[in-house]
Amino acid sequence: MTILYALTGAGIIGCAIFMILSRNLVRMLLGLSLLATGTNLLLFLAGRIGSEQPPIIRDGAKALGVSADPVAQALILTAIVIGFALTVMLGVLVLRAWRSGGTVDAREVDAAEMVGPAQERDDLHG
Amino acid sequence: MTCMGDALLLTLPVLVPFLGAALALLLRKHPAAALMTGLAASGFVLLASVALLTRVMVDPRVPLTVFGGWPQGFGIGFSAALPGSALVVVTALILFAAAIYAIGDIGPRRRRGGYDALMLAMAGAMNGACLTNDLFNLYVWFELALLAALGLLTIDRRPAQIDGAIRYAAFAMLAATFILIGVGMIYGMTGTLDIRTAGAVLADSPASVASAVAAALLLGGLMLKSGLAPFHLWLPASYHTAPTTVAAVFAGLLTKMGFYALLLVMVVIFGVGRGAPGGAQLTPLLGGIAALTMLLCVAGALGQTDMRRILAYHVVAQVGYMMAALALGTRDGVTAAIFYMVHSMIVQANLFFGAGLIRRASASWDLTRAGGIVRREPLFALLFAVPVLSLSGIPPFSGFWAKLFVIRESLDADMAWLGGVALLAGLLTIVSMSTFWSDACWKDARRTSMRAVPKSGLVAMALLSAATVVIGLMPQWLWSIAQLSARLLEGQG
């Protein structure tokens, strides 16, 4: 079971890295989002599949019975929220780039590469 | 357990910026009120952080608070352990200087766009990262700082900013994911997220594939964050699109925050200084990364004429020196890295302030178009000379001591080649920075009209230049704090 989980996680992360390397910004965005999913699977695995005793139990008791590690689940929930927020942020940036330049090809989104007089008009009176 | 006063003092550097950010967000339709909120919150954080550092220095019992009343090691805790609390002071100083500089640099349009709220939120996240004891919490603060930084980077919504932000966001998200996987693996191995507990558990266990992979993932992720070679190219490709104040704060804080986390992970968890599993295998690699970063980035700086790009390359090159000190794998090396970090934060922010004022005076970011400032603004030329000379490593400024310590420790640790590379990079830095100053200030002006630089900018630069001079004249004071930090990091406080 653990091996299956680990291989699935590795497979998802492999696909994600392949997509991140794409020149298409939307593919890169989807790849990053997929990478977060694979990471969550690995985090889940870090808490072990099967019964794990939580660190804090009722006074006097020795064990809680069948239970899962709660910390790993808390980590995944937090990571999902953060991953979602960052994906949305990057999505907005890609959308703005597409609106201003009409392209999602990373080679053509190069406004930050230019320096010199063309870029000089910007921020004197923000 | 600590008393209430300590708990409050410990959380103030995080609470105040976030309260200020909320207030500034409500007041953003009134730029003057937002400006005052930013200035007041920054000033208050500076006072609170100085009080916290004083408290730590006076009483060796380190204040610690664990949220939710959990026993230590189970809940998320904040502690004022050095170097975290010293970095909070430097962060607050740069934030305060930036708030003053912003009076003349950030206009009502950007303030209505939420500049003050974003800046305070980023500062709060930085302070949280410096104070937390929890590995996952550290990751969360990193992401918060990233979100605020992306907002600041795109505040004018220009295509160049969007482009720079996409590069920055993609790299930072990739880095954060690697860090998260590494954190998860450490949790899987040790069963705890408390940084010091995890380090103690790992120190007692033999090196395994898991510890090596976790160390490599964390190293890779944090190298991306701090811009170390071969992951240095995103930084000069994005920083220059931000408004000057924002670029200065990024240069002073963001990469150094990545390096602080790297220091924490490498020294406390993987025990680089103790030859513990994980750390021992990585130490030879670190020296190569440091040497590559120093040489590549100084060479990159020499090839540019755009002031912001020159400085952005120097930002990364400076992280290379810190990495060199860490790569020595000795406690004195860690001390030198912490000293270098404090020096470099102040100087880098100050240099960007100076570049912004030169741009203001000469209406161009291009060095070849600048010149003659020493006649028009002698006070500015003098103030700007302080960070320039300090970055070049000229005595009596802080950079001289920082470089001297790195090279001295490399000789002590029998890694003279790394000290030699640092010297060579230092020589090239002198070439680059002296050209910078003389081109901007000494050379004859090509334009007859030159605008005056705003007083607020000069005040901000004076503040940071004064800090540089103080460190330069009394290095033993910062050195002793750095020594104490290194001892605490290695768990022998």
From TrEMBL, chain B:
Signal peptide: none annotated. InterPro entries: CPA3_Na-H_Antiporter_D, NADH_UbQ_OxRdtase, ND/Mrp_TM. Residues 133-428 form the NADH:quinone oxidoreductase/Mrp antiporter transmembrane domain. It is found in: Cell membrane; Membrane. It is a multi-pass membrane protein. It comes from the Bacteria. It holds the Pfam family Proton_antipo_M. Keywords: Cell membrane, Membrane, Transmembrane, Transmembrane helix. GO terms for biological process: ATP synthesis coupled electron transport. GO terms for molecular function: NADH dehydrogenase (ubiquinone) activity. GO terms for cellular component: plasma membrane. The chain crosses the membrane at residues 6-27, 34-54, 74-103, 138-156, 168-189, 209-235, 247-273, 285-303, 310-328, 334-358, 379-397, 417-437, 458-479. Belongs to the CPA3 antiporters (TC 2.A.63) subunit D family. PANTHER family: NA(+)_H(+) ANTIPORTER SUBUNIT D1, NADH DEHYDROGENASE. This is Na+/H+ antiporter subunit D. It comes from Sphingomonas baiyangensis.
